[in-house]
């Protein structure tokens, strides 16, 4: 029989496992007696349902079947015997603070009195959820692809019909319900290659090097999977920025690779210094095998836009140190600050001459979820691999084939993003108007956010040069830090209090990583301008109140 | 500097790595001299493009940049230093035979003369690609969700509009372009739970136990991820049927879990015998820690439908032996044979009484890709977890949150599948007509396939009781086996020859597993009836010719 005992323990923050822990849980976790029954107070046999909530917020009806007179025995699959790599995964962007936000929303719907009437979720770059309207042309073509009967309909412009027909002709049985090739629909990969060539001033792009994906996250994890190997001191090390987008640390935990942290320079607008890369790399060589360098440009959560010089330095460093480059460029259209410009890693690589362009191995990632379209729900994306060994590429193709194909509606959407209406086409004017409006509003909100935050004593905020986030630094009084240490990291304590008092959901800086002793939060700049002003004012008032309360 | 040497070796079948190999490649693979340049003859610098093709069929333009006068050095990432677990992954359904089929299609387009005019791809369960038309109601609602302007349009029935409005209201910003909750849109999880309750005669289903997914494959791999742990003799063992759907073996290779094979009984219509489960389990306990039992019902690739008694026996076995049950039930509507009926594992589990229903830990999987809808491209699916430890469930929720959410159009589609038009709604008659026609045609083709194959000397075929495939056994002459052994497994040799001579693409039985010394292939029954008859005739003629040639 199974000797498992069900552990009785406080149902805590599910993201607080120590990332450096090895495959065993800390000894301090004492399992309960055999047959112990974990019952969060007041939570069972209620018929209520909440989204993505952690144990104390949920009703587990099947769990409650233990009340039917049958004694509940230990489970086969428990926190103690499950995959330890999965336990080490953390993902703050949808962590406990978001779960609490969802619960508060429910309480509001049920009439519970709060100091606010709605929760504003500025935790995630989800443009449509913040009220941004979809781009008409994209959605017209998607409707036509979904229900081709509409091709007979006069209300759709000819260019939308043409695009839909071309996509449908490339689909099995002319249906987006057929599987595509695992690498993505061939004509869409061609369109992506043309888009890249045009973007990069004519530098060639080979459709064979394009892999469509389920959002950029899917492609990023896939490339990391190929690169991870070794045990002990030979374990693959992957360099990621601090602060970082936590997909990276989560994927490394799951793949059991070594995270090598390099710090962005907050005092210099979150810029990247090759000296810091070198420091981090040389230190890491003592205990692992560094093989990969990940860059996010424009930055998430930090919003910086890398200069051409910086990118050149990074490429030179990658070549000298034999590192595979991963360039996360999903915010490539989101550049706002004067004097800033997006330079793709591929373009800079090829401009550095054949000594670089034929040697540096690289993958670059893009997505339909960000930029002006913000179509997160479709999970569209692509990667371009450069200088990848043909045998490894065959393995990559094999690996992606196991999941059959990326969602075809997302592939179709990506096709429209890389092949938008042209000046001589009927949808061009509307398309450009909608696109420009979205990007102009974002630029305005980027400026507004920086300006207002920098008027608040105790908040300092770098310019939001690009992407969709601000990552301001907050001074927390020592008393608040001491108070928080009883149960939470200080910036989580701050953000939770902000959520409870003002109904604003942010993500604590600790979810992205930050220099020891500093505190931040990430906030999207996506709310509509008037709402963003309100959010900024509420945060300002809260910060002043918080500072006073703990002084 | 990087000491890597690029290996020079024949570009072979990329799926032939020995699955039992440990983390190192066999010693017999000798790396080439440093700087050796791997150049598949005649393949580089051509501008042609092919889909998912292995090295010998591709042009690697960036690879060819080595010809620009710059000596090509060893790659950072090579077959020798990449993730060995990924190398061990095999997925025959989209393996080398399909890549050859795609190449032949291209040759036909280019005017190359062949003994046939089209390639018929009966290798994968892709209904729309085989000409099946999408169900009107599903696509109408998807078009409305994609482009809500159409809600003003009188051409759409009211029930389609109502469904679309309900889905949109549940989306952030009323857009399917917003991220959903990671577990899936709440109202859709409710609809799934109602669907399960109705299907299972009222046995309760809790929406908190429903996780929407990116097709069933995604959910299956996610559950396996939770369950895998341990090293050496403690490594998690997972029982899978032979023949199996190769997603399972591929996932186990990638997760470094131990595959425990149990054989289905071909002589008894591919039925499952608990004695065989016990044999396999007890043998495996000598070298690993068996924790999971995977069942596919109706069967893929074998098409059997399990009896209620068999399911009860399996559940009892799982409970006695402390195994987590994974029930792959994606073909639950695809049951054709008289006397056969689909019984869900959950229903049988709950009918066995609280001693079972409160204890056996289980996950059941479903998909929008099969049944009558065949909407593979949308990557919709769900799983229901039963009796899962609440703390493990919180880890599951955390894990799925890293990938943000399943594609929202796929979630919307799933909602329509679990909540189809009702008898009092305007779309009901058309919906039922379309649904019935698809399932009736499949039933007819299932029978036809069995009948015709069994008239061929050297082919024996069990009844296709359900699912979408036949897995007939083929007798191969010894001379053919000897001939094949020079480079291929014999059934791959057979299927490749069939593809070259008749233009029919099947998957060799070796891709699914089969008893030593037996040979099979998997063929879908999806081609339209007239085309299916042609396919069956061509295979018959080929088989007779093949047998004669090698006798």
UniProtKB/TrEMBL annotation, chains A, B:
<dbReference type="Pfam" id="PF00155">
    <property type="entry name" value="Aminotran_1_2"/>
</dbReference>
<feature type="domain" description="Aminotransferase class I/classII large">
    <location>
        <begin position="144"/>
        <end position="539"/>
    </location>
</feature>
<keyword id="KW-0808">Transferase</keyword>
<keyword id="KW-0663">Pyridoxal phosphate</keyword>
<dbReference type="InterPro" id="IPR015421">
    <property type="entry name" value="PyrdxlP-dep_Trfase_major"/>
</dbReference>
<dbReference type="GO" id="GO:0030170">
    <property type="term" value="F:pyridoxal phosphate binding"/>
</dbReference>
<comment type="similarity">
    <text>Belongs to the class-I pyridoxal-phosphate-dependent aminotransferase family. Alanine aminotransferase subfamily.</text>
</comment>
<comment type="function">
    <text>Catalyzes the reversible transamination between alanine and 2-oxoglutarate to form pyruvate and glutamate.</text>
</comment>
<feature type="region of interest" description="Disordered">
    <location>
        <begin position="1"/>
        <end position="45"/>
    </location>
</feature>
<dbReference type="InterPro" id="IPR015422">
    <property type="entry name" value="PyrdxlP-dep_Trfase_small"/>
</dbReference>
<keyword id="KW-0032">Aminotransferase</keyword>
<dbReference type="InterPro" id="IPR015424">
    <property type="entry name" value="PyrdxlP-dep_Trfase"/>
</dbReference>
<feature type="compositionally biased region" description="Polar residues">
    <location>
        <begin position="13"/>
        <end position="25"/>
    </location>
</feature>
<protein>
    <recommendedName>
        <fullName>alanine transaminase</fullName>
        <ecNumber>2.6.1.2</ecNumber>
    </recommendedName>
</protein>
<comment type="subunit">
    <text>Homodimer.</text>
</comment>
<dbReference type="GO" id="GO:0005737">
    <property type="term" value="C:cytoplasm"/>
</dbReference>
<dbReference type="InterPro" id="IPR004839">
    <property type="entry name" value="Aminotransferase_I/II_large"/>
</dbReference>
<dbReference type="GO" id="GO:0004021">
    <property type="term" value="F:L-alanine:2-oxoglutarate aminotransferase activity"/>
</dbReference>
<dbReference type="InterPro" id="IPR045088">
    <property type="entry name" value="ALAT1/2-like"/>
</dbReference>
<comment type="pathway">
    <text>Amino-acid degradation; L-alanine degradation via transaminase pathway; pyruvate from L-alanine: step 1/1.</text>
</comment>
<dbReference type="GO" id="GO:0042853">
    <property type="term" value="P:L-alanine catabolic process"/>
</dbReference>
């Amino acid at each position: 029989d199974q000797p498992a005992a069900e552990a009785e323990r406080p149902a805590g923050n599910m993201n607080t496992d120590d990332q450096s822990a090895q495959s065993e849980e800390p000894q301090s976790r004492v399992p309960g007696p055999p047959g112990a029954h974990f019952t969060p107070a007041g939570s069972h046999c209620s018929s209520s349902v909440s989204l993505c909530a952690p144990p104390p917020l949920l009703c587990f009806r099947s769990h409650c079947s233990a009340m039917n007179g049958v004694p509940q025995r230990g489970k086969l699959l428990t926190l103690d015997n499950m995959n330890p790599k999965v336990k080490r995964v953390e993902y703050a962007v949808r962590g406990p603070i978001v779960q609490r936000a969802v619960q508060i929303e429910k309480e509001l719907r049920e009439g519970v009195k709060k100091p606010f009437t709605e929760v504003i979720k500025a935790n995630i770059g989800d443009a449509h959820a913040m009220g941004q309207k979809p781009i008409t042309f994209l959605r017209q073509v998607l409707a036509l692809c979904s229900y081709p009967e509409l091709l007979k309909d006069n209300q759709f412009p000819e260019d939308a019909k043409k695009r839909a027909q071309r996509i449908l002709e490339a689909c099995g049985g002319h249906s987006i319900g057929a599987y595509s090739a695992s690498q993505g629909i061939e004509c869409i990969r061609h369109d992506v290659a043309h888009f890249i060539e045009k973007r990069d001033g004519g530098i060639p792009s080979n459709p064979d090097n394009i892999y469509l994906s389920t959002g950029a996250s899917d492609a990023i994890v896939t490339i990391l999977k190929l690169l991870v190997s070794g045990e002990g001191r030979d374990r693959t090390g992957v360099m990621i920025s601090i602060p970082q987008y936590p997909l990276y640390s989560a994927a490394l935990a799951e793949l059991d690779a070594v995270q090598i942290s390099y710090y962005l320079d907050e005092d210099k607008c979150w810029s990247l210094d090759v000296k810091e890369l070198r420091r981090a790399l040389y230190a890491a060589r003592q205990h692992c095998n560094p093989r990969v360098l990940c860059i996010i440009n424009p930055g998430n959560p930090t919003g910086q836009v890398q200069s051409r010089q910086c990118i050149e330095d990074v490429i030179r460093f990658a070549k000298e140190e034999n590192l595979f480059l991963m360039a996360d460029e999903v915010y490539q259209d989101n550049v706002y600050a004067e004097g800033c410009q997006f330079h793709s890693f591929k373009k800079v690589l090829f401009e550095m001459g054949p000594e670089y362009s034929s040697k540096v191995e690289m993958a670059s990632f893009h997505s339909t979820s960000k930029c002006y379209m913000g179509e997160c729900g479709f999970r569209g994306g692509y990667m371009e691999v450069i200088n990848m060994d043909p045998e490894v590429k065959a393995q990559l193709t094999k690996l992606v084939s196991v999941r059959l194909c990326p969602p075809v509606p997302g592939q179709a959407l990506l096709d429209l993003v890389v092949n938008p209406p042209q000046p001589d086409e009927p949808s061009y004017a509307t398309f450009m108007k909608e696109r420009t409006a979205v990007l102009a509003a974002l630029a305005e909100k980027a400026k507004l956010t920086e300006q207002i935050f920098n008027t608040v004593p105790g908040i300092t905020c770098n310019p939001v040069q690009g992407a969709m986030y601000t990552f301001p630094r907050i001074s927390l009084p020592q008393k608040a830090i001491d108070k928080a240490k009883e149960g939470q990291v200080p910036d989580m304590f701050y953000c939770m209090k902000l959520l409870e008092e003002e109904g604003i959901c942010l993500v604590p800086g600790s979810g992205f990583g930050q220099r020891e002793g500093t505190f931040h939060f990430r906030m999207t700049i996506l709310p509509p301008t008037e709402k963003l002003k309100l959010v900024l004012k509420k945060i300002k008032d809260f910060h002043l109140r918080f500072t006073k309360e703990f002084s």
